[in-house]
Amino acid sequence: MPGTKIEFNCNKIARIKGLDELAALLFPGNRAQQKIFLAIFIEIKYSKGEFVPFLRPLCDRYDFSPRMLETVRSKMRRMGIIDHVSRFNKAHGFKEGWVFSSRFNHALKKLADLTQDFRDRKDVLQERKDRDLFNYI
């Protein structure tokens, strides 16, 4: 049985050329969830203003269960790929629905920056702190 944990392998990421490969990276081992990810992503991408008021109609259009939709939708929201817009949001005309979020992109950039910052800090005090981490982990 293939694993279901996301593996951020730099070689896998470098080989990604299409949306289907991104789906396989984010939802490994579950083709049904990959298809639902694609359905949500494509519907938001090609909708007017990249705004979809309801995701539930996708169940009928693409033939999957509401439970599976909620599982994938919640994972996409936790990762920061999509976000729910409240009807009190002026930017979207006071309409409730789903849009792309920039949180996923920002989090990955922050992770890359943190890694670089940790590599760059090399003073004596930082070295002592870094070596002391072994006592706490």
Overview of this protein structure:
By secondary structure, this protein is mainly alpha-helical. It has a domain of 92 residues: Arc Repressor Mutant, subunit A (Orthogonal Bundle). It is built from seven helices and three strands. Strands 1-3-2 form a three-stranded antiparallel β-sheet. The radius of gyration is 19 Å and the shape is extended.
Q: What is the topology?
A:
Blueprint lengths: L9 H6 L3 H8 L4 H16 L4 E2 L4 H6 L3 H14 L2 E4 L11 E4 L2 H18 L3 H13 L1
Antiparallel strand pairs: 1-3, 2-3
Helix pairs in contact: 2-3, 3-5
Note the main attributes of this structure:
137 residues; extended; three-stranded antiparallel beta sheet; Arc Repressor Mutant, subunit A; mainly alpha; 59% helix
Q: Short summary of the structure?
A:
By secondary structure, this protein is mainly alpha-helical. 59% of the residues lie in helices and 7% in strands.
